[in-house]
Amino acid sequence: QLVESGGTLVQPGGSLRLSCAASGFDFRSYDMNWVRQAPGKGLEWISYISYSGSPVYYADSVKGRFTVSRDNAQNSLYLQMNRLRVDDTAIYYCARVRLIPAGGSDPWGQGTLVIVSS
Amino acid sequence: DIQLTQSPSFLSASVGDRITITCRASQGINNYLAWYQQKPGRAPKLLIYAASTLQIGVPSRFSGSGSGTEFTLTISSLQPEDFATYYCQQVTSYPLTFGGGTKVEIK
Prior knowledge:
Distance between the termini of chain B: 36 Å
Radius of gyration of chain B: 13 Å
Number of helices of chain A: 0
Order of helices and strands of chain B: EEEEEEEEEEE
Strand content of chain A: over 45%
Number of strands of chain B: 11
Helix content of chain A: under 10%
Order of helices and strands of chain A: EEEEEEEEEEE
Radius of gyration of chain A: 13 Å
Shape of chain B: globular
Oligomer: heterodimer
Structural class of chain B: mainly beta
Largest sheet of chain A: 7 strands, mixed
Number of helices of chain B: 0
Helix content of chain B: under 10%
Largest sheet of chain B: 7 strands, mixed
Distance between the termini of chain A: 34 Å
């Protein structure tokens, strides 16, 4: 199970840290992704972190502003979001990368809503 | 980056219909494609991985096929609970990318 938290209303230019709490599986063995969905729009992958914490990858839309990290001892995944923009408004999902090649992501958390507005 | 083009973007169908959704990749991705179903207010759910392998618990009326650049998701007999939005995703390389989605609505 994955449970995201930390979403809220924040002003443009502000910062926010999202968390994703994992349970029911050996979190330290799995790579993880963050995916977001703007209101009424499709899915957008934004970040990946390997099981060990490195390497990490980012979408161009968030590179240099967002930082992904994890604490395997706490079974937790994080997304530090800085210099937030109005177009960062979205539901943010964490998702586990399956160990099977070409396996996709499963499960996903329920998502946490970030609203960037003045 | 690998682009995925999904078609149609909207599909109106009746219960019992057979429907097919297509996903085309801008370059070859072997079978590194997943399909997800998303219902309003819910997180995406993995249906198919490796282009054609059904995730555990997914009904057999769902099937996937394809390799390289062209893929399809087929629902053999649409059920009321299948009305949702469907997304393909390439998982061959980062940045991962999704298709634009296909919304399946009741005719």
